């Protein structure tokens, strides 16, 4: 049995443009992000989906709504698809986080999978378990279907690593573009990446924050 997922990062926000770690702060789309959401919806209207799930944060949900209208499907929200909780790093640029929390930032930049972030932020391992659990649950509950997921750069990072087997410690070597289309699947219990970073429907798109560790946070 094959379950297919199309993963879409939310449209652009002003904090994306400023290079700030949004985490679970509820930042809305900017004008470019709203245009990207509409363009992605038009592109996806030609596809068949059985369900749409979105993070319950505004920037993801507002990206998903035009897609739901284009596909004639309700958008179901879930906190399990939220961005990583960055604790005290949220709202800061990487330079600001490094200056304010040098030891914590060093562990973050080194991609220490067990290190929590200051302010009760999620470790990479905890974040990976949350995202992987959500995707496996959907694949179990909706096996054989095609599912649209609208979420965040960090969520897509964890999903790609789940599907490819890439270690959490390894620096990111793939894109996480606003409103790009990214396809993975689970076939007979095994995950695989089908295609990644499709932006044919967009005039331009920002990549997820690229820090010294190739991390994600928007």
From TrEMBL:
Q: Which Pfam family name is an example for this entry?
A: His_Phos_1
- Descriptive protein name: Histidine phosphatase family protein
Which UniProt keyword terms apply here? Glycolysis, Isomerase
- Record-linked PANTHER family: BROAD-SPECIFICITY PHOSPHATASE YOR283W-RELATED, HISTIDINE PHOSPHATASE FAMILY PROTEIN-RELATED
Q: Which InterPro entries match?
A: His_Pase_superF_clade-1, His_PPase_superfam, PG/BPGM_mutase_AS, PGM_Phosphatase
Species of provenance: Methylocella silvestris
List the catalytic residues: 10 (tele-phosphohistidine intermediate), 83 (proton donor/acceptor)
Enumerate the SMART domains for this protein. PGAM
| Binding annotation for substrate | 9-16, 59
Q: Which GO terms describe its cellular component?
A: cytoplasm
* GO molecular function per UniProt: phosphatase activity
């Amino acid at each position: 049995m094959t379950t297919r997922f199309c993963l879409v990062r939310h449209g652009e926000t002003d904090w994306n443009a400023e290079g700030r770690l949004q985490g679970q702060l509820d930042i809305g789309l900017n004008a470019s992000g709203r245009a990207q959401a509409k363009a992605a919806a038009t592109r996806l209207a030609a596809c068949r989906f059985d369900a749409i799930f979105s993070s319950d944060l505004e920037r993801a949900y507002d990206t998903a709504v035009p897609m739901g209208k284009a596909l004639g499907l309700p958008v179901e929200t879930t906190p399990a698809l939220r961005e990583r909780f960055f604790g005290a790093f949220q709202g800061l640029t990487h330079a600001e986080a490094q200056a304010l929390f040098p030891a914590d930032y060093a562990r973050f930049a080194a991609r220490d999978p067990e290190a929590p972030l200051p302010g009760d932020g999620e470790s990479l391992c905890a974040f990976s378990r949350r995202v992987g659990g959500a995707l496996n649950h959907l694949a179990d509950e909706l096996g054989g279907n095609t599912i649209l997921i609208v979420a965040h750069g960090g969520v897509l990072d964890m999903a790609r690593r789940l599907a490819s087997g890439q270690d959490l410690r390894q620096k990111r070597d793939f894109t996480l573009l606003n409103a790009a289309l990214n396809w993975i699947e689970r076939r007979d219990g095994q995950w695989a990446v089908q295609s990644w970073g499709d932006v044919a429907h967009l005039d331009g798109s920002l990549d997820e924050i690229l820090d010294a560790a190739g991390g994600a946070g928007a």
